[in-house]
Design a protein that fits this description.
Blueprint lengths: L1 H5 L8 E8 L7 E6 L5 E4 L7 H12 L5 E3 L3 E10 L16 E7 L5 E7 H9 L5 E3 L13 E3 L2 E4 L4 E6 L10 H20 L9 H8 L7 H5 L4 H24 L7 H9 L12 H19 L1
Parallel strand pairs: 1-4, 5-11
Antiparallel strand pairs: 1-2, 2-3, 5-6, 6-7, 8-9, 10-11
Length: 303
């Protein structure tokens, strides 16, 4: 673990994920975060450690007059996200509200994999803060009449009082944006926390389900519902069918060991008369907005 925490700032950055200004530095100092030539996460503060393509991308970004994101840390430890484990639902003790946990599997600068357990507050705050991505200019841009920069998303998670993990997300295709990979990650994290929140008695919920419902458009009205006014029993039956579908999905995920949920929690969800929500079709922008609202709700309950 010690090798992972020191990072490898001497490694050249072959592919950039982001460039940030270090907020705790006494002088203006930048950190270049990305992958080295061997494909491992790396960080550098010397621009001469960048590959020619990475330097061109930084110069193009500077020419756009966009500002560099400032992170409130003196140092960064580069890691890459690979997968996430099952969320852990800690029970409340008396009046003390417990913070739920999501373990991330990550690869460090030395190439070793380890688990990074994240509390929901730190996780949601880091996701909400990632709303403005780095704009990566592809190396072959000079040979084209016009080209759009590739948005690159990076998560910054506190390690200690002065350092943070810079969590990278590898693009599905080399040289492309990592937006799809990051969206899948954000949706997965939000889904895990929604499952836990919905499984709680209403008095113990943090407000995640309500936040999701406010952002989710109602299901599209079909031709029948446009021509025929549904009575209340029929509407309730359709809503119950939606909840039952979620319960069936959770049972399948539990059988595959992808979620940990008890029969009692499933029963609460099945009979919970909550409003409709479905985050499956939300855009990344909407998911980031939802994460920010969930973070605000969690702070009110946990802090």
């Amino acid at each position: 673990m010690g090798a992972e925490q020191t990072g490898k700032e001497q490694d050249a950055i072959a592919t950039l994920s982001t460039v940030v200004r270090l907020g705790q530095s006494r002088r203006t100092e930048y950190a270049f975060v990305g992958w080295n030539a061997g494909g491992l996460p790396a960080v550098a503060r010397d621009p001469h450690a960048l590959s020619a393509e990475a330097r061109e991308s930084v110069l193009a970004y500077q020419a756009s007059r966009l500002d560099f994101r400032t992170v409130p840390y003196a140092g960064l430890v580069p890691v890459e996200f690979t997968s996430a484990g099952a969320a852990v639902d800690f029970p409340d003790v008396g009046r003390t509200r417990a913070e739920d946990l999501v373990p991330l599997e990550i690869v460090g600068a030395a190439g070793t994999t380890f688990s990074l357990p994240l509390g929901e507050l730190a996780l949601l705050e880091a996701i909400a803060d990632a709303a403005v991505p780095w704009q990566l200019v592809p190396g072959a841009a000079q040979a084209q009449a016009a080209v759009a920069p590739r948005p690159m998303y990076t998560l910054f998670v506190p390690l200690d009082a002065t350092r943070a993990y810079a969590v990278l997300f590898r693009p599905a295709l080399p040289g492309e944006s990592n937006q799809a990979t990051f969206r899948a990650f954000v949706r997965s994290m939000i889904s895990k926390l929604l499952v836990i929140d919905e499984s709680q008695p209403p008095r113990n919920q943090k407000g995640y389900v309500q936040a999701a419902a406010r952002l989710t458009a109602p299901p599209p009205r079909g031709l029948l519902s446009q021509l025929v006014a549904l009575d209340e029993p029929t509407r309730q039956s359709l809503a119950s069918a939606g909840r039952q579908a979620r319960v069936d999905l959770l049972k399948t995920l539990r059988a595959l060991a992808l979620v940990e949920i008890s029969d009692a929690q499933l029963e609460v969800i099945e009979h919970n008369a909550d409003v409709y929500y479905d985050i499956g079709e939300l855009s990344l922008e909407q998911l980031l907005k939802l994460a920010a609202q969930m973070w605000a709700a969690a702070k009110q309950v946990l802090l």
